[in-house]
Amino acid sequence: MKKQPEQLLATIEQAKQDLKNDGLFTAVIFEALSLGAVTSREFARKWGMSQSSVERWRTGLSVPHTALRPRVYRWLKEKFEAKSE
Q: Where does the source fall among the domains of life (predicted)?
C-alpha cells in the first residue's frame, strides 16, 4: 500500500525537527521516491551524486551529514507540492 501525500509531508515536517534521526531521513527519501515526488535521476542530478548513492540513501545504507538534510527536505517538499498542483 502506497503512502498518502499527506503522510509524506508529515514525515518531512517530523524529520525537520529531528535532523539526527537517520531512520526519518531514510523514510522521507523512500516515500518521496515511491510517490513519484521526484525520480532517482532527478535526485542524483540535483545533489551531484550517482543513482546508486540515491539508492543507498533510500535504503538507509548511507545518509548525508545532518547539515545537508534541511536543504534536501525543503527541495523535496517544493518538488512534491509543485507536482501536486
A: Bacteria
